[in-house]
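User: Could you go from structure to sequence for me? I need the amino acid at each position, not a summary. Structure tokens:
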């Protein structure tokens, strides 16, 4: 009888714990480091942070290793290669290994080095040259280099700019490496459009080692030789693969212009999606969708889909600081892409966020000028497009985040995909929720000057099949003892966890396991 009772209570206990909601396991307070640039997740409970020391005279680059939210080691990254002083360009994880990228500029010659580090942040092995090139004579600007890692972390690309001076076109160089740090393809290329009116909007490296760039070509501004960001002439996809030569493909954007676009891929397809408007548009009228076959190296025709009218009609009537409404003549403004999921059935789910920054110059009675920067991160849109390019569903998640002179460090969001859902976290105002923590449908703003009792971390779950959305208050300030910095937080799909960063008088890190 006692054994049966034990099994009964064990079953109740298991059922109770299985129904517990997700929670963030916050670690202890750590030394405050406002100069932290990135969190680099390694494995379950272990991550690195890349930051600069708080010294105002000679800030030094440092990397710290954390275990379960507690700092266990912190070391400087010495900017030296073969006893030469060099410049640190980036710190990142590739194949679960810690690397630093350095540049050495001597006269017109630039050399890029990769150096690996072990878990104790000590140099592991010798540095090696990943690229070497010559810049125009007299060029004094900083080295412009970008690193990109494939979704499965099996390829790394180092992409660098060889700027034009007297010539019309900039040149780019690249080196694609595998996990053994062997080059599978390297070279230089030229974008055949005037560099003064072009801009690289998106970069993507596939799990097969194919490298894509998305480039916007703008019209020249009136009475100027530089670009007019309001007039897009062309949207171009540049494709580089290990087996084929570099090829340039123009998106079929007749009578339309692209505002933002992003690229994702699986083993057979790369998918390009973004927002579009017509030649007279002040904002986006809809979304577009195009596929690129990795088997035939060909770009399919582009499909254009308009925003559903019922979504535009839902626009909040309260005015924002810079726009009287987010909906201007049936168009949405300034959406940037945050996350894209390519599902097994060939459909894609896309998350985008509205943001804008503006600057106000003012003078006091003494004639002293003051510049104030306003950062605004507002509503999100989430949509699903079928394999055939048809719109499955479209949803809008209202939010309003505004701050002054803080680079928007507590604004924006973090998101991940889990078990058929898209989950979003963002900072919000408690007045948007009832006593049970359920969203009331209001859009009262969050700001960096918000009182502690009015601050909360919000969570929204979107079902990827139906678009059904559920939003609730996830955590109060008392449970965190700081504002969460979503821009610094990161998702690690290898161990299915989110690492949250919070800032107050001390730094704090928390881990949420989602699968």
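Assistant: Here is the amino acid at each position, in order:
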């Amino acid at each position: 009888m006692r054994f049966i009772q034990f099994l009964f209570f064990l079953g109740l206990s298991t059922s109770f714990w299985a129904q517990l909601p997700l929670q963030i396991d916050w670690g202890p307070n750590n030394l405050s480091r406002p100069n932290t640039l990135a969190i680099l997740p390694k494995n379950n409970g272990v991550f690195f942070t890349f930051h600069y020391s708080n010294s105002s005279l000679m800030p030094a680059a440092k990397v710290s290793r954390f275990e379960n939210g507690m700092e266990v080691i912190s070391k400087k990254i010495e900017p030296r290669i073969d006893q030469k002083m060099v410049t640190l360009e980036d710190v990142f994880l590739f194949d679960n290994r810690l690397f630093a990228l350095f540049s050495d500029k001597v006269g017109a010659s630039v050399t890029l080095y990769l150096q690996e580090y072990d878990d104790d942040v000590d140099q592991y092995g010798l540095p090696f040259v990943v690229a070497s090139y010559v810049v125009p004579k007299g060029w004094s600007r900083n080295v412009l280099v970008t690193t990109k890692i494939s979704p499965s972390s099996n390829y790394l690309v180092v992409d660098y700019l060889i700027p034009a001076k007297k010539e019309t076109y900039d040149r780019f160089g690249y080196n694609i490496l595998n996990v053994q740090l062997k080059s599978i393809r390297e070279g230089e290329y030229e974008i055949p459009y005037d560099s003064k009116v072009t801009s690289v909007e998106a970069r993507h490296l596939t799990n097969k080692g194919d490298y894509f760039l998305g480039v916007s070509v703008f019209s020249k501004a009136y009475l100027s030789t530089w670009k007019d960001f309001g007039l897009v002439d062309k949207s171009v996809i540049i494709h580089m693969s290990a087996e084929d030569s570099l090829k340039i493909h123009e998106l079929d954007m007749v009578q339309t212009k692209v505002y933002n676009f992003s690229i994702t891929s699986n083993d057979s397809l790369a998918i390009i999606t973004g927002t579009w408007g017509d030649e007279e548009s002040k904002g986006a009228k809809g979304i577009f969708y195009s596929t690129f076959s990795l088997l035939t190296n060909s770009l399919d025709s582009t499909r254009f889909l308009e925003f559903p009218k019922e979504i535009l009609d839902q626009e909040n009537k309260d005015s924002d600081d810079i726009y009287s409404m987010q909906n201007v003549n049936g168009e949405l403004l300034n959406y940037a892409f945050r996350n894209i999921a390519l599902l097994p059935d060939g459909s894609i789910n896309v998350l985008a966020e509205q943001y804008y920054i503006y600057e106000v110059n003012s003078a006091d009675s003494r004639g002293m000028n003051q510049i104030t920067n306003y950062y605004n991160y507002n509503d999100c849109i989430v949509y699903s497009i079928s394999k055939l390019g048809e719109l499955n569903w479209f949803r809008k998640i209202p939010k309003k985040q505004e701050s002054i002179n803080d680079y928007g460090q507590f604004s924006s969001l973090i998101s991940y995909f889990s078990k058929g859902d898209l989950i979003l976290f963002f900072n919000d105002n408690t007045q948007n929720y009832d006593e049970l923590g359920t969203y009331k449908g209001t859009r009262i703003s969050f700001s960096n000057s918000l009182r502690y009792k009015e601050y909360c971390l919000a969570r929204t779950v979107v079902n990827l099949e139906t678009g059904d959305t559920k939003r609730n208050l996830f955590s109060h300030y008392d449970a965190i003892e700081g504002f969460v910095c979503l821009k610094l937080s990161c998702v690690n799909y290898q161990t299915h966890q989110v690492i949250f960063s919070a800032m107050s008088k001390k730094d704090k890190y928390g881990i949420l396991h989602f699968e």
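One structural detail worth keeping in mind: Residues 1-20, 315-328 have pLDDT under 50 and may be disordered.
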